[in-house]
Each structure stands twice: as structure tokens, then as C-alpha cells.
Amino acid sequence: MITSFLRLNGDSTAMPDAIDSIDLLSTICSKLSVASLIAPLAALLLGLVLGFLLAKHRRNGSALQVKSVLPPEAVNKEPIWHSLSEEQAISAQASDPTQGLSAVVAAGRLKHYGSNRFVEKPPRPVWLLLLSQFKSLLILVLVIAAILATAIGDIKDGIVILVVVIINALLGFYQEFQAEKSLAALKKMLALQAEVRRDGRSMILPAEQLVPGDIV
Questions:
Q1: Is the pLDDT of residue 173 over 80?
Q2: Is residue 84 predicted with pLDDT exceeding 80?
Q3: 57 within domain boundaries
Q4: Backbone angles phi, psi at 70, to 5 degrees
Q5: Residues 184 and 146 in one domain
Q6: Domain containing 37: what range?
């Protein structure tokens, strides 16, 4: 077909070179894999996705910048305490630098805000502390081994394993129980006191009784 086309155009001398060029082009095209054709499309798709994510990030960044230039009152009604002067902080708490709070106001604020201390978890019951000694994987394996030994008739081995498990649990329970008792005693010894001014008088109070507006 290519030969007849070249003959019709009267270019018979260029026919061999043209045929060689077309054959070379056909060989190259046949060697192109599907992956090489998909790669440009994948790169284009990846570029579009990255461009979309970058544009979204810039929009979010501009939104954050707009929020940051707003006055503090528009963002949060709570005063920025560290930026206030001493007089401003005392005034914001409706307190008096020389008289302090009255006993009535302090009692009302203590009832409203609660004690000045962190909320602590209640101590674990004794039975739960003892039960926690059997959560170890090794202990569970030993218990299963004792049950299996008893089931197959090795009662003596099963009893020995159970005795070891129980002794280990009792030792761990005793150590943790003593540690919790020591920690509770240490907390009582380290009960903090604070000198505070109320009704124009200085007094020593437990730190957990301090309320917002106290002059310490």
C-alpha cells in the first residue's frame, strides 16, 4: 500500500527511505507499553490534585489570618489575664487591693467555682486492686496450665502452680496497697497553706479554699 502510494506520487527514488522511516516509526510505536501511555495521564491527574490541595490550604491560611487580626473581645469574652495590669486584673474580679474579698463573697464564689484543686480519681477498692494482679499474661498462662494439669490428672502439679500464682498475686497486692497508702500520707503532709487578705485582715487558709479575686 505504501509502495503504490509513493508510485502514484511519482517519487519512486525516495520510496526505500520512506519505507525504512515508516517501519522504524511502527517499531517504536509497537514497543510503547500501556504504562508509558498512562504515566503522563497519571502525572497530570496528580498535578491537578496537588494544585487543588494547595489552593485549599491557602484559603484556610487566609481565613486563619483574618481570625487572628480580630480583637480579643470578638474571639473570646474571657479576659487575657497575663496581659492585664495588676489594677485591671483586680478590677475585673471585683476585688479590693487593700480589703480583699469579704467572707460572704468568698463563700459564694467557693460554692460557685468549687475547691481550688485538681479533681482526683477515687482510690481503687481493695478487691479491684487484688483482681488487677491477675491481668498479667504470664499469670493467665499459669492459671490455664494449672487447670489443664488438674484436668489430666496431675493434681499435684496443678496445686503447685496455683500456689505460686496466689503468692505472686498477694505480694503484688501488698506492694501496691502500701504504695497507695504512702502516697495518700504524703499528700496530707504536703497540704498547701496560703496567706490571703479578706475583710481587710490577713489570714492563713488552705490553698484549696482560695477563690478568684483573693488577694494572696
A1: yes
A2: no
A3: yes
A4: -70, 150
A5: yes
A6: 2-67
